[in-house]
Each structure stands twice: as structure tokens, then as C-alpha cells.
Write a structure and sequence with these properties.
Layout lengths: L1 E13 L13 E14 L4 E6 L5 H8 L7 E6 L2 E2 L4 H4 L2 E4 L11 H11 L5 H11 L12 H14 L4 E5 L7 H17 L3 E5 L3 H7 L2 E6 L2 E7 H6 L1 E7 L7 H6 L6 E5 L2 E7 L4 H5 L6 E5 L3 H11 L5
Parallel strand pairs: 3-8, 3-9, 6-7, 7-8
Antiparallel strand pairs: 1-2, 1-4, 4-5, 9-10, 11-13, 11-14, 12-13
Amino acid sequence: MIEISNASMIFENENVSLFGKKTPDDFKHRSKALDDVSLTIPDGCIYGFLGSNGAGKSTLMRMICGVYKTDIGSIKIDGQEVYDNPEAKKNIFFVNDETIEYTSYTLSELMNYYRNYYEGFDDDTYKRLLNVLKLPEKSPLSTFSKGMKRQAVAVIGLACRTKYLMLDEAFDGLDPAMRTVIKDMILEEIRSRNATLIISSHNIREIGELCDRAMLIHCGKLVFADEISNIRSRFRKLQLMSLSHVITKEEIAEAEIGVMQYKAEGSVIQIIVKDYEGLDDKLKGLDTDLLEQIPLTLEEIFIYEMDMKGYGK
């Protein structure tokens, strides 16, 4: 189990002008890459990390695997603080969103490198997966396409057979057919030994299909973290219509219904509602001739949550 408790990462920036010179005040201000993030990643789950660009997903992943140190709070793997702790780190393999550090290696050299660091490295797994993907062992990764580099590092990560596998932008650069092959390969390996998979992706539909849990982070702050079924159950999309008039925002507000979004198309209105305790009783106060409830996808929830945060405005 991975326990993240009140994790914050603080950095200092010098206040500079547009021309790179310090302002007359010549001071530094502190910013938070991560701000008081707490969540638990249970054993054997597939956990999706969602967030806007620069939200802090990659930073949090690097903190979980012990590359970055928390300035406040703690991150523990199976009860052990991960930072500066080789014993904890040996249980986790991290594939970051860049593969530039691997480009001077051949795949065979990369395999030997990681075999020295991970006691559980399995040659049979490596050979079997390599046979599936048909990657050249003796060519430098610098000659590989972006998608081939992704495949190569995924093979190494799975062959290390760690308890935790973390993939940042896991399927970036893969064509649709190969995405399916790699996803199936990873899921089969992870589930066969009840390991834990943590993935980030901008393809939210993919996260919704693959993962049983997800979290959303924005500007370093945690928005939600839960089982995907629970996340979806907290949102409703409603279509309402009255034959006598168009139901207005004011009427909905008078009924004490809090909405994330209101949209009218002719006489039909659509509202998005979150944490809707007592909603059914409140809806009875509206003059409606049509009431339809539509389930939301994880992708839609992401869009509505980010819209509420003012993202892109």
C-alpha cells in the first residue's frame, strides 16, 4: 500500500522582469508544486492520475518513487518512507514521460542494467514480451521511434516484476493497434501477480476503461480521489422540460439545486449536478413535464470539474 499524507513540495522563484532582470524589490516568492495532497493507493489496484497540464501529476509520481523529497508530509510504501530508502524503492519501477535517458543504450544493455538493480528481474518475462513486440535488441534506442521506446521501457518495467509499476503518460506515441497490444500485455502481467499499476494519461476515456480508482489534481491541489464507480455516482446529468415555459436558472436556484452547468436548447434544459443530496425532493418543486437522468463518463466529469476551476478561461 502507498500512503501519501499531506504531501507538499515547495520551490522558490526569483521575481524577474520580462527582460530577465530582477525587479526593484528584488525578492523571492515561494510556490507549491504540490499542496497538501493526501491519498491511499491500495495493493492490487489500477490507479489513474488525472490532471491538467502542469497540474502536478508527474511531480507526485517522482515523489512516490523517491526522486523528489516532500517538503511537508510523508510518502510511505508498505509502511516505509520512500525518499532515500533503497529498500522501499526496490519495490517500485517508474517509467517517466520522457525516454531520453535511455537513448544511448541498446535494449539488451538496458536489460542488463536493470537486472543488476532489481533482484526479481525475470529473464523469461523479458524474452516472452520481447518476442511479442519484435523489438531489435542490438540497436540503440536512439534509432527507435517514440512508440518503440515506450514499448521497450514497458518490457523492462514488467520484467523487473516489482510490486508497483508507475507509467507516466503510459501510451504516448503508440498507434491505436499497438496501444491495445501494450495495454493488454501490461494488464495481464499486473493481474497475474496482483501487482499495483499507477498510470497517468491525458486520454481520460482510457483511464476510465482501465482503472478501478482515479484521482484528479489541479494546480497542485487534490480535487478528488476515489473508486471510479463512487466518483461517477456523485454526478448527475439531468434533462428537464416544461411544456408551459423554459425552466430558468433562477427557478433552479430557488429550488436550492446547485448546478455545475446550465444549458438550454429550445424548451429542453440540461444541468449537471454534483453531490446531490435530497435532489429528488428538490426537483419536485419544479414544473417539469420531462425529467431524464443520464450517466456521466469520467471524461465528462473531468471537463466539468476543470470548467468549475476556471481552467482554459
